[in-house]
């Protein structure tokens, strides 16, 4: 009997029904919490609360705070995903946010602030990230951005913060901010882990300290993100990076390093040979990672697309593909997806002569693209940047060469063919 009671107690001890809020936090539904909200509402500093409250979610997975927060924001801002969640409803759900990081990885490890911003951008939101700082100027900036958000009905501020700084259990967390009480300088956090903590008020200065906690994954501080709808846009519909490319994909990181080292070599004297070489090298590095809607589970995507939107998407896909196929890059590649990756690649001006040449050509084509294709390229560039920054091993290339007139490629210096050309396979 005592053995059974002991077993029951040990099982119970591993299960938790919510947590008591620490003294640093004021529960939203308490008398003081209600008074703070009433005064904030009268002052016009809780307008965005109603849209967020209408879409308030509880995260489905322990590591889904970022995804659930973003789903809440997307639905609050009335962004049409142009896909059916469960027939016949078009509505955002966590399962639909898989364009930047595979859901399986997020389920295990969560997402970083930069990945959160990438997901937001790929789903038609303007995303401005501010990394946490301990300075008074940052606190003033944070307060100003918060006031602009809570007084609006189309801007949302999301905080990426360290729970432990607030005296709560846990560490990194995402949640939207819904109201501001000016007299006490407190902010209302709509905590998406509602099984753990209810919505609560905290001092803005305390939350600022929580934003400054360093994320061990990125080695950068946490921070906040300002989000609003980008009108006249749509999510990625045609191109992308294959789902297995994630923050632990060493193959992608190795490809990026190889490509950047190739760009540091001097260009060939013959322009056509140089162009062909660059395209072949890029294809060698990134063809395995390129994704086109005709290669992925396009049939499944079409089934999940609404009838109303599918024909528009189909026309947009045709237009985007046609414009990419008109570029010189597409003449080299059998897949337009690889050409699209090259056009969308985030070339850094001044990185090298070779990089500037290929980058300038890509920019030339972009100037002639339609709005649909430019939207696709912008979203793809954001996805590429995120994966470059987050893939492991970290991509660290010294772009500040002491003398750009000299190349790392010794054979080219003495008039012979570029050594890197021997490394590019047809």
Automatic annotation (TrEMBL):
The UniProt record lists the keyword ATP-binding: no
Enzymatic class: transferase
Peptidase C83 domain: residues covered: 11-232
Keywords tagged on the record: Cadmium, Metal-binding, Transferase
Gene3D superfamilies in UniProt: Phytochelatin synthase, N-terminal domain
InterPro entries the UniProt entry points to: Papain-like_cys_pep_sf, PCS-like, PCS_N, PCS_N_sf
One biological process term in Gene Ontology: detoxification of copper ion
MF terms in GO: glutathione gamma-glutamylcysteinyltransferase activity; metal ion binding
Species for this entry: Caenorhabditis latens
Pfam families: Phytochelatin
The EC number(s) this enzyme carries: 2.3.2.15
Name of protein: glutathione gamma-glutamylcysteinyltransferase
């Amino acid at each position: 009997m005592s053995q059974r009671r002991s077993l029951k107690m040990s099982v119970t001890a591993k299960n938790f029904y919510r947590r008591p809020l620490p003294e640093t936090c004021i529960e939203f539904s308490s008398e003081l919490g209600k008074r703070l909200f009433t005064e904030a509402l009268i002052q016009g500093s809780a307008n965005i609360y109603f849209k967020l409250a209408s879409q308030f979610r509880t995260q489905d997975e322990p590591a889904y705070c970022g995804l659930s927060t973003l789903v809440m924001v997307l639905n609050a801002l009335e962004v049409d995903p142009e896909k059916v969640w469960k027939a016949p409803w078009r509505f955002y759900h966590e399962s639909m946010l898989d364009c930047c990081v595979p859901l399986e990885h997020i389920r295990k490890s969560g997402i970083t602030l930069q990945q959160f911003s990438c997901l937001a951008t790929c789903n038609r939101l303007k995303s401005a990230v501010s990394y946490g700082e301990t300075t008074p100027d940052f606190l003033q900036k944070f307060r100003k951005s918060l006031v602009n958000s809570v007084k609006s009905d189309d801007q949302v501020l999301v905080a990426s913060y360290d729970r432990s700084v607030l005296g709560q259990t846990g560490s990194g967390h995402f949640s939207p901010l819904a109201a501001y009480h000016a007299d006490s300088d407190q902010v209302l956090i709509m905590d998406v882990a509602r099984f753990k903590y209810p919505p609560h008020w905290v001092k803005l200065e305390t939350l600022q300290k929580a934003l400054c906690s360093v994320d061990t994954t990125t080695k950068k501080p946490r921070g906040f993100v300002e989000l609003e709808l980008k009108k006249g846009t749509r999510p990625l519909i045609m191109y992308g990076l294959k789902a297995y490319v994630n923050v632990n994909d060493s193959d992608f990181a190795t490809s990026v390093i190889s490509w950047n080292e190739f760009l540091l070599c001097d260009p060939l004297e013959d322009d056509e040979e140089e162009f062909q070489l660059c395209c072949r090298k890029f294809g060698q590095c990134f063809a395995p990672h390129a994704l086109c809607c005709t290669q992925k589970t396009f049939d499944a995507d079409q089934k999940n697309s609404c009838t109303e939107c599918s024909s528009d998407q189909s026309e947009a896909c045709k237009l985007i593909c046609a414009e990419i196929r008109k570029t010189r890059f597409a003449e080299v590649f059998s897949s337009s997806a690889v050409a699209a990756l090259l056009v969308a690649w985030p070339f850094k001006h001044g990185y090298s002569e070779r990089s500037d040449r290929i980058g300038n050509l890509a920019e030339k084509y972009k100037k002639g693209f339609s709005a649909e294709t430019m939207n696709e390229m912008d979203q793809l560039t954001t996805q590429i940047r995120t994966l470059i920054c987050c893939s492991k091993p970290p991509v660290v290339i010294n772009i500040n060469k002491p003398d750009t007139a000299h190349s790392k490629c010794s054979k080219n210096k003495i008039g012979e063919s570029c050594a890197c050309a021997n490394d590019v396979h047809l």
